[in-house]
Design goal:
By secondary structure, the protein is mostly helical. It folds into two domains: about 1-30 and about 80-335, no CATH class; about 375-490. It is about 60% helix and about 5% strand. The protein has a five-stranded mixed β-sheet with strand order 2-1-3-5-4, covered by helices on one side. Helix 17 (about 410-415) links the parallel strand 1 (about 390-395) and strand 2. Helix 1 crosses helix 15 and helix 5 (about 80-105) packs parallel to helix 7 (about 140-160). The N and C termini lie far apart (about 75 Å).
């Protein structure tokens, strides 16, 4: 019976993984992968990035992710691009497998269990309120691996095997510390909710007393520099006061929904579902209080880059999981046409959104594919035709250029560059010591769109850059061995 049950679970989970991957797309080197993929490549090839490694190495000192990926590549001899793709797919599969396991313990109906998996699969790229997070990124991110481990840990706690959750939570913490801490916090509340038979108010008081005993370290109260504050102000999603009304609604409405679910499940005698809803509600209220304190007390401004509203990520995962299961139980049932409409609407809508988001790039940027994106063509030429110690300057806002689709120069061109005004600002908020260097370079590149030969020569004299990537046709006086219809790669004389 176990042998027969295994493919009945494995094959549908694999099918939903493929469907989810096809809908969400794959974009290595985009957005946060500008830090993680760059670090992995630097670990494998230490001669890369001799001029600017602090803009990715220092931030990753708290995680083993890049070293782990580098060791995996070296041990298996799988190229980095294929290794990243394999782990992205495996992360998606493990997330869905964990969701199915959780749903199976909450809902006896098979249709509810698979509707939960189907919903999470379709919603991989669902934005999480105003946090600038997705449930899963369109590239390999340690958050995805940590999410899978946390969800497996939740499944083990619901199954009454709490000690099996501990190593999973520890591993999630060393891969993605912020996500790991949030996972530990949630599992703490879930453990309290499943204890017998302590009253709810006592569990809540114990939880708040225990978590409140963690006293912030002294560095939090160090006065921030003006340049660090400048970088911080460029990340509007850090601040609740700058969220749109619908983003604020997305932060508070789920807590109301889980309160309703707790009451509903408790009245129906669905004990596990009621206790999970209670744990989510308690976790959400506690973390919301923490976030309001951190974001509202000026003395704690140094904690702002930790993005305390990130706790919503886990809540949104459970929102999709339980929402999908409820649809399967009460709406979809065993109707083939209802399932067809549901899958088409959910997956079609998310696919359309992703095509708008990455309009200038192929939906699946597979390792063997040839790109038609002019920016990626330029990165590829630079990677294969310039020296490893080349030092580039390019538009500080290049990631936001039309058609660039937030791909990272460092990760894909594999060359050093002066700091940018988009992704590097996030790094500076995490590593305040980089703020003076970042500020100096940004000031030196002010007015980039009007730069001529003398400006590039000034950058060379000031910072040592010897190459630039500029629009085509380039300014006079630059030696440009390559160009396409949009960009030129040039050497500063």
């Amino acid at each position: 019976m176990r042998r027969n049950k295994f493919p009945a679970i494995l094959l549908p989970t694999l099918a939903f993984t493929i469907l989810g991957f096809a809908v969400m797309g794959y974009h290595p080197g985009a957005e946060d992968d500008g830090v993680y993929l760059t670090a992995v490549k630097a670990d494998i090839h230490p001669t890369l990035f001799p001029h600017d490694s602090d803009f990715f190495r220092v931030q990753l000192q708290a995680t083993v992710f890049d070293g782990w990926m580098a060791h995996f590549v070296e041990a298996t001899h799988i190229p980095v691009a294929w290794a990243e793709l394999a782990w992205q797919f495996l992360s998606l599969f493990l997330i869905l497998a964990a969701c199915r396991s959780i749903a199976a313990q909450l809902f006896p109906e098979k249709r509810a269990q698979w509707a939960a998996v189907a919903m999470v699969s379709a919603m991989f790229t669902l934005p999480v309120a105003g946090t600038a997070l997705y449930l899963v990124d369109q590239h390999l991110h340690p958050r995805a691996v940590a999410t899978a481990l946390i969800l497996i840990a939740v499944s083990r706690i619901l199954a009454g095997k709490r000690w099996q959750a501990l190593p999973l939570l520890i591993l999630s913490s060393v891969l993605h510390p912020i996500m790991g801490v949030l996972g530990i916090s949630f599992c703490f509340f879930l453990t309290l909710a499943t204890l017998e038979p302590a009253p709810v108010w006592l569990r809540w008081r114990t939880a708040t007393n225990t978590l409140a005993s963690v006293v912030p370290l002294g560095w939090i109260f160090d006065p921030p520099s003006p340049t660090w504050r400048q970088a911080l102000s460029m990340r509007s999603y850090f601040f609740l006061s700058q969220w749109a009304w619908y983003e604020l609604l997305g932060a508070f409405a789920p807590l109301v929904l889980f309160w309703l679910l707790w009451r509903f499940a408790d009245k129906r005698g669905e004990t596990k579902l009621a206790r999970l809803a209670l744990a989510i509600l308690s976790f959400g209220i506690f973390q919301q209080i923490v976030a309001l304190v951190v974001l509202g007390v000026p003395a704690l401004v140094r904690l702002t880059p930790m993005q305390p509203m990130r706790f919503l990520h886990l809540i949104y995962v459970f929102l999709c999981l339980i929402g999908g299961a409820m649809m399967g139980r009460y709406l979809l049932k065993a109707s083939v046409w209802r399932w067809a409409v549901f899958l088409l609407a959910a997956n079609g809508g998310m696919f359309f959104a992703q095509r708008q988001l990455f309009a200038g790039t192929a939906h699946l940027e597979m390792p063997s594919s040839v790109t038609g994106n002019p920016w990626l063509q330029a990165f590829e030429w630079i990677r294969t035709n310039t020296p490893e110690n080349a030092y580039f300057a390019l538009d500080p806002n290049y990631m936001a250029a039309p058609g660039e689709d937030y791909h990272s120069f460092r990760a894909l061109a594999e060359r050093s560059m002066l700091s940018d005004a988009i992704k590097d600002t996030a790094v500076v908020t995490q590593v305040p010591s980089l703020a003076p260097v970042w500020h100096e370079q940004q000031e030196a590149m002010t007015g980039w769109e009007h730069f001529q030969l003398a400006d590039f020569e000034r950058l060379k004299a000031q910072f040592g850059v010897d190459w630039v990537m500029v629009s085509y046709p380039p300014p006079n006086g630059l030696a440009c061995p390559w160009h396409n219809g949009a960009l030129s790669v040039c050497k500063i004389p």
